[in-house]
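Hi R.,

Here's the chain you asked about this morning:
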Amino acid sequence: MKLQTKIPLIQAENPIDYNGQLLLLGSCFTENMGKKLEYFKFQSLQNPFGILFHPLAIEKLISKAVHKEIYSEEDIFFSNELWHCFDAHSNLSDSSKEKLLEKLNAAITKTHHQITKSTHILITFGTAWVYRRKETKEVVANCHKVPQREFSKELISIEVIQRSLENTINLIRSINEKVHLIFTVSPVRHLKEGFQENQRSKAHLITAVHQTMNILDFKPRTSYFPSYEILMDELRDYRFYEADMIHPNQVAIDYIWDKFSEVWISPTANAVMEKVDAVQKGLQHRPFNAGSEQHQAFKVSLGKKIMYLQQAYPHMKFIK
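And here is the predicted structure, written out as tokens:
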């Protein structure tokens, strides 16, 4: 008896290994996958501008990074005792405008550098709903708790999303022709917009991504990973959600990561991942008797494991 429908997955022809360089951009689900990659010590840069939910915000970030456009005082504003930028998440906001500009421009530099050397770029879209400033008509990445009356809300069309994706791909390939782009749609539901509105939003994103990938020039080195479909169709049970019934819980995140690993992590990396996992668990270990001979021997053994990994992969850093 089959009690679950399975999403068919095909192993990638160009998988990620420990020599790969990754850039992760997008919604909060990007952070979930990013934490896994960080845990296993892959080389990656994750959301340098913070969480970005919709395609237009990601396109703007990519454009500014590719062209090395510097932020100035005209690009930031003061509200609720902090300086903000409508292009970035509030975790970059600062009480000092100088420090905010420093962080924004450092993010531009890091993003440009990472795009040029990335082997894979993972982009996760969360929503097709956007907020547009009435004063300037510009779409923002984050409203920063500015009063709602200053914005209009709209569902961007499939055609607009597709043009944005085409622009994003062309911008990235203008400085890195060989990079492989992996698109996915976040399984996090945006129910504050409404139930039907969330479904329309996800449908627009999925349709636009697939239509873009079917363009002849974009077929090579673009892929779609079905994060949204795995949670909706394989798991489809509220026991896989957090208490808010919106965000996937750790069991669901681990499940989707395992599926992602099957498709996108090179089999040659598995043995290294096991060694990294053993070290990470060892570093989390809290001894009953820190002065015992047994624990001292454990520390020596763990140190040798770390030394072995760092000699083979110098980029790996472990927090003791």
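One quick note: The mean pLDDT is 95.

Cheers,
M.
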